[in-house]
Design brief:
The protein is mainly alpha-helical and 306 residues long. The protein contains 14 helices and no strands. Keywords: Cell membrane, Membrane, Transmembrane, Transmembrane helix.
Length: 306
Amino acid sequence: MNELALLLAATLASGTPLALAGLGLLIGEKAGVLNLGTEGTMLVAAVAGFAVALAGGGQGLAFAAGAAAGALMAALFALLVIGLNTNQYATGLALSLFGAGFSAFVGVSMVGQKLPEQAVFALPWLGELPLVGPVLFAQHPLVPLTLLLGLGLAWALDHSRAGLVLRALGESPEAAHALGYPVRALRAAAVILGGALCGLAGAYLSVVYAPLWVEGLVSGRGWIALALTPFATWRPTRVLLGAYLFGGVTMLQFALQGAGVEISSQLLAMLPYLATVIVLALISRNPLWIRTHMPASLGKPFHPGG
């Protein structure tokens, strides 16, 4: 039972950055904007958060720095694709490449440095409950908060005015514009909010999950987060499920190694990315299924009066 609890706790911890980034992307995509720059955004946020934590700023400031860095990267993306009408796909890829290079340049003096050992978080009494305690209540606070965020976003999209407006931006921006909503400004706000969540995910990786800085620390998690939204049919609760599924696959390699299974460590390290490729291949076999669930105007620019 103890080993199962540890595995489940590790799965939630590993899936949290994927869930945060996936939820951030979901917000932007529900508004009709596809941002392929997640990997670069998370890398810039990771190095920003780590630098603040290394300077003694504490986790709160480190997370704030990561979220701010993610929001700035997303604001740059929004300026280009919404303000200047550049191609969303090309701009996102360029942003990802820029983020990878910029983070490597800024973090060159911090490579290999580690943060001091951090205190273990646990809620009194609740953290001592069998199975549920270590899984949910003996984690970093960002882990249960991410769960609550996903559930709250699911409720908001279906039952709140803001959620309905967000969905309208991605389904029919022309109708939203006709009703008097500033579509381009609201799309930019959704992209920036999503970027802040991606930044929070990057900071979590370098400040809590690792906690250290090496070049390319995100290791493809931004691309996996991008795959989560079609996998989840653009539903927040399914984004959580997919994130923790990929987190579980990541932890599986360590569980197998601990059990003495003689499999190449390189092969085990491939498992999360192999799972991503398989999921995308299965999804792509049914284009109609994708078109049925994705926002109708995803990736399409909107020009008022055009």
